[in-house]
Amino acid sequence: MKKEIGFVIVILFISNTLNSQILTEKVYPDFKHHSVYLEIGGSSLLYSLNYDYTLRITNGLNLAVGSGFAYSPNSIVDDQGYSFLVAPACNLLLGRSSHHAETGLALLSRGTADSTTISGRIGYRYQRPSGGFLFRIGFTPIVLEPEWIMPWAGVSFGYTF
């Protein structure tokens, strides 16, 4: 019985999300969803190439979901050479125009469960609803071990289409 209730809740959530996205498209027809950007510093330590998809929830609230890839030296953290980082991220954007406060989390992984960590984000994002130039700057602390949080920051430049 619990499985059926859970299934119904998931279906209702998905249908409500899809319905709200369809309504959003009608209310904001010129809103651009796709963004690609290069981040220097930030969640991936040195640099990363990222993509995100922005869902417009209300006029002042957006949700950006995406992922980034980077090839960076592990020598910042340990002496294992280089690794390929994958960073799925979810960011909440607060703001009614092109200027947004941005907060969220990213999951950093080097391919194994013991090398997965979390990075937070608190920052500013410039992204016009009609697309074009994208700029982000933020404080992105990285949890390297349960007892060690590395303060970090990043800046991003990209394009929304």
CATH topology of the largest domain: Porin
- Spans where pLDDT lies below 50 across 5 or more residues: none
Chain-averaged pLDDT: 81
Percent helix among the residues?
A: 10-25%
Strand content bin: over 45%
Helix and strand sequence: HEEEEEEEEEE
The coarse silhouette is globular
Describe the protein's topology:
Elements: H1 2-27, E1 34-41, E2 47-58, E3 61-73, E4 82-94, E5 99-108, E6 117-127, E7 132-139, E8 142-145, E9 148-150, E10 153-160
Describe this structure in words.
- By secondary structure, this protein is α+β, with helices and mostly antiparallel strands.
- It has two domains: 1-29; 31-160, Beta Barrel (Porin).
- The chain is built from one helix and ten strands.
- It has one helix at 2-27, and strands at 34-41, 47-58, 61-73, 82-94, 99-108, 117-127, 132-139, 142-145, 148-150, 153-160.
- An eight-stranded antiparallel β-barrel has the order 1-2-3-4-5-6-7-10.
- The longest helix is centred in the first third of the chain and has 26 residues, at 2-27.
- It is globular, with a radius of gyration of 17 Å.
- The N and C termini lie far apart (45 Å).
What's a quick, concise take on this entry?
The chain has 161 residues and is α+β, with helices and mostly antiparallel strands. It is built from one helix and ten strands; from the N terminus they run αββββββββββ.
